């Protein structure tokens, strides 16, 4: 079975309860929402203990968070981070503004 996780930065998230799990006979994906990088590290470590082989961080974290989460999982799983290339700065800024306006 493939087991992986995506962690999303969300200001008011409760890392213990704000989760979505999709499971089939071949795969299990957990999407966890966390309020901080430190919470992401703790959640990633716990998800790896539960079998996650890959942890992906959403682009809202920034690249430094990848190092913090990688340290927390201690090489027990791969850690990936979504990043925005220079060509997408305008679109990313527009998305951020729209998101903040809806909050």
From TrEMBL:
Lineage: Bacteria, Pseudomonadati, Pseudomonadota, Alphaproteobacteria, Rhodobacterales
The protein's name: Uncharacterized protein
Matching Pfam families: DUF6506 (PF20116)
């Amino acid at each position: 079975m493939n087991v992986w996780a995506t962690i999303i930065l969300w200001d008011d998230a409760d890392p213990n309860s704000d989760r979505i799990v999709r499971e089939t006979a071949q795969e299990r994906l957990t999407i966890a929402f966390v309020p901080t990088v430190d919470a992401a590290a703790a959640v990633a470590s716990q998800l790896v203990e539960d079998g996650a082989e890959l942890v992906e961080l959403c682009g809202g974290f920034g690249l430094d968070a990848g190092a913090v989460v990688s340290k927390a999982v201690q090489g027990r799983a791969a850690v990936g981070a979504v990043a925005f290339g220079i060509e997408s700065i305008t679109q990313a800024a527009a998305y951020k503004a729209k998101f903040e306006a809806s909050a």
